[in-house]
Fold this protein.
Amino acid sequence: MNEPTGVAVDAATSIFNLPDYRVISVSMPTDGPRQVIVETDQPPGCPTCGVVASRRKERRFQRIRDIPVAGAVEVLWSKYRWYCEEAACPRLSFFESTAQVPRHARSTGRLRDHLVEAVIRSGRAVSETASAFTVSWWMVRAAVNEACVLNLPDVDQLSPRMLGIDEHRFRSVRYFRNPESGSWTRYEPWMTTIVDLDTGQVLGVVDGRDHTGVGDWLFARPLEWRLAVQVVAIDPSAAFRKALRMWLPRTAVAVDHFHLVSLGNQAMTEARQNLSQQVKGRRGRAVDKAWAHRMLLLRAGDTLTGNASHRLAEVFAADDPTGRLQAVWKVKEQLRVLLRTASLADAAAAKDELKALVEAAGRPETNKLYRTVCRWWKEIEVLIVTGATTAKVEANNTGIKQIKRTARGYRNAGNYKSVILMTSAVRTAA
Ligand SMILES: [Zn+2]
């Protein structure tokens, strides 16, 4: 049997475990949670002169919100006013405060920490966190905002070398009816994040996906900050390229790897659908091998197992009478080869091969893909030389992905932005 060791404190205080407080009594009302009455465990220092007080004046009870301790509790703080006995001090008396419950606070620090933890580290929605801790939605928001103010670094004090600009839709599309004309307007709530590609930290989140939001954000940075940025990675469909020349004229622009690979996959899917219409005169069905294995066509060719490449060969043998589907697949794979090259000479050779495969395929989908590659060739070269891509940031930043998934919980764009910034800062620091 284990003998108890250590300093003896009363059981209730040690179980309740709120620093700087001791439990003086507990009452069990028939309706409502247990009431825990606490007081501070040592005399406070005067907030003006710092001299520790020894004489108490009156007291009052303050209700403070706290975490559940073996179930919901209501905490009442028997809070004293103390005399300041330092003759030289202008303050005559003061109410005590603690690190857990500073002046004007209505809740314990450990409750606020738990709320921030739930939203930022565990990625729980604010509304869900509020009901789990039986506090108001506003209280959770306030705790997160306070943590943002205390913890977010000053962006202008950082000096990122490589930026990534990435847009995403943060809520589903909504329609609004114009009351006068009766017509419906489509509203897509887009957000653009600006990321430090070296650290993966989100530096800014701006509304919309056009260049004005990002432009205003960049203009707000000091000139030296902007001059220190060497590369910006963007997605190839964005209107950013032209505008970046204005905001960051000395900065090389790279096109993002991930977005190019998805353009290749898009061409693959369109070619499969169009070929089905042209060859069979109908949409793909489960009996068609190309349709049944449509995801296999999109997988990275070099990662296919023996079994998977065997199935892929079967698809081409059984369901590709013109050989066009396989030709498009080769184009898609060659684009991936091109993006993995390590030098401009290798990239140029890979581009020649891509061109030959595109000509062999003779499909509108791959012709379009090749035109995009040519239009963005300068930016692809920057990508190959610098490796500036948002893909690795996306992969590291699972936290951001999780927020995007729970984004439906955020009605307010400002709150959503602060949670993204905060999550990213916490993850970068970890
Ligand atoms: Zn004093």
